[in-house]
Structure formats: C-alpha cells, structure tokens
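User: Arylsulfatase, Fuerstiella marisgermanici:
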Amino acid sequence: MIHQSLISITVLAAMLAVPSSKSCAANSDSASPNIILLMSDDQGWGDVGFNGNDVVKTPHLDAMASAGIRFNRFYAAAPLCSPTRGSCLTGRYPFRFGILAAHTGGMRVGEITIAEMLKKKKYATGFFGKWHVGWVKPDEVGTRGFYSPPSHHGFDEYFATTSAVPTWNPTVTPDDWDSFGGEPGGPWKGGFPYVHNGDEAKENLSGDDSRIIMDRVIPFIEANQSKPFLATVWFHAPHEPVVAGDEFKKLYPTAGNKRKNYYGCITAMDQQIGRLRTKLRELGIDKNTVVFFCSDNGPSDGLAKKGVASAGPFKGHKHTMFEGGVLVPACAEWPAVIPADTSTDVRCSTVDFLPTVASIVGDSRSGKTSRPIDGIDLMPVIRGEVKHRDRSLFLGYRRLHKGIDGKAIISGDWKLLQEAKKDGRVRLYDLAKAPFEKHDLSAEQPEQTMRLRKQLEELEASCQRSRDGADYRY
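Assistant: Predicted structure for Arylsulfatase:
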C-alpha cells in the first residue's frame, strides 16, 4: 500500500473556502493569518545556535526557535536545492512534479502551489530571493523552454534570481570564483541577476544580499499589512560563492578566511530575519503571522569536507542521501498559537508546508482523488497531539551529469537509502538506535530491507505516473 495523502483540486479548494473551528479558536485575530516562509540555502543542521553551534552567531533565529517550536527532525525533500524548493511550493515529492536536479526544467503550470491556493483566499502573494524552479528571464541561456517565473505560479509580486548569486555584491564576480568564464570583479552571469516583476532590477544591489532581499520584503509587508499576505523569502546565504562584508567577518576574529565568510553571511542573514521580526511587532501583526524557517538541504560538499560548514553529528552533506544531506535546521513561530520553548522529534518535511498552510487557513479535510499530496498537516504535531509520522517519507534527487538517482525512504525509524552512484548499494539503518548511520543493517535485517524496497518501488511508480501526466489536465 502506498502511504500518501490523496487530496484533490476540489478538496483543496474546499480547504481554503471553509475556515476550520480549530484555526478560528486558536487565532482570535483572524481566520486568515499571514504566512511567511523563510528558507536558507545550503545551511547545515549544525550551522545555527539553536542546534548547539556555540560559534556561529544566529541570535534572531535562536530567539525565533525559543519563541515557538523547534523541529529536531526536519527533512528537505532532496539533498539538493531545486527539488526541495518545488516540494515546498507543491506539497509533492520531486519525483512526482519532475524537477529532480538543478537547471533541468521549470515548474509545470499544472502544479498547484501554496501561492495559487492562497490567492483564492484573497491573500496578497510575494516571492523574494532565489527561485531556482525555472528561469526568471525569458531570454536567459535561451531558457531551453524552462522560463517559469514566480508570476506563473500564483505570486502577485516577485524579486527573484534564477539561481545562486554571491552573498555580498550579488552582481559582481568575487575573487577566486569562476562564473562561466567571468573575471573577478566583472559582472556576475551578465551583471543583473535579479528580476523584479519581469524587469531587470538595477538599483539597490550592492552590499549584503540578504539585506538586498529584505529591502523588498519589508515594503511588501507594509503595503499589505491590512490584508492577509504570503511572503516567501528564499535567501541565497550561505550558498557559494560565500562572501561576507567586513562588519560580519569582524565578528569572527579567530576564524580562518573561509569560515569568516561562511559564518559572516549566516549572521548577516540572521540579522535580516531579526529585522523582519521587529517589523512585524512594530506593525502589530506579529501575533497574527506564522513564520516558518528551514534550509533547503545539507551543507555544501566542499565546505563540509573542509570543516567550514556543519551537518552537526550527522553523516553526509549536500548531494548525499545520508542524514547530513537531508536533515536541516527548522523552526516556526506563531505567538497566538504556538507555545514558546516547544520542540518535536516527529519527522517532518518540506512537503508538509502546503497541507499545513491549507489547514491553517481552511478545513483540514482530505479525500481520495487523482492528485496526490505527499505531505501531512503539521498543526497536530505542533499542538503535541501527534508523536509519530503516519506515513513514510520519500527523499531523492538525480545526479545532473550522470543521470543516476539517489533515493531514500524512511518508515518509522527505519531508513533505506541508495546513493546516486553507478554501483550505489542499498543500505538500511535504524535511526532510533543509530541516528548517525554508522552500521548498515541491510544484510542483518533482510525482511525490513525487502519491506522498505517494496514501499520505495510503489512510491516511485506512483510518482512516475504523476510525472508522466496523470495529474495534469494540460
């Protein structure tokens, strides 16, 4: 049996049309709270203070985690950016909506995103930062048919890049970095990577990139403070090229240069998250706003191997199916609803954002129809009513240059994975007893191995049907 939620277009519409009694009771201000989705890029599980790092300075993220709930076992849908980003928007696995790697296609217009659902509830919708589920310029690298900007997926306003930019002076190629033949100090990928509502942005693009992004987020929130809004804010930090301004590097006087820049750009991003939280309080809308934060995958391969970036105690990094590649820092804050200083060990995922937001703003009913939604509603988890995930988690991506899939399935505490290698063998781990994946149990536990392989095959077959067009009318 495939363990997944089947929610139809019509049921999702009903979810958005009918306020739930629990939502109304929990939030006396409004049945339509503001939604803010924050995401960092390549930030490892161990690269925040609230997960025990006592060197990197993330006071505002730490305060946010303390004021709300900390997700101790939160998974990116893939150990790679683009597949995870699509899962955040759709509530579906990457193998279902078809973006399995970076730069391999745009989001299908047939997908239903959080923004499209919330527009039906008369939300203002804005996207800010790294898009990476389609090109944002129609003539970018010929686009190869991948032109698919945020405006095609329910966002009224957007300030976005197609992919990575330097975390300081995002229009300039930094020293010691080759950008498709670009010279240090020369233009970064053409010079103007940001697009604002269809036009190249050419002003206020110097200095810290997280501040540049937040300079667009704050006016959007101020303009829409009297109506419900969705602000999706996907930072570039700390994805390479990792560059920090002097004021942030000075905070780490004993660190080496790479760590000064890495920690510095994380602290710069954290400062902007603090600026956002302060603005919500100044406007008097903080209690009626739910803010989620997570990273898109584990730490960069190169930076993790050099001991700069950290997955904490977990094995692996970006581009691996081990915990270090997919387990990410995450927390949420909603003063009117989420008690302070709470945490959960329930396994949660980026595919859970859409069904959770649908539950928050509407009715949490679900039903069986043609469009599979793979995530779960996290509100029962947040309220402490659920102690275990009621379905398996499917994680995976495709190696861009080799065309080999890396995949994993987690069922209860059992995890089966296959690395994206030509001879990638199947491995089995009991995460309850050995969360750091040091001992492969596949030979010792053949029944568990067979059970999970069968579940994985069923999920892959279901996703393939979706990818082949079963879920789309066009």
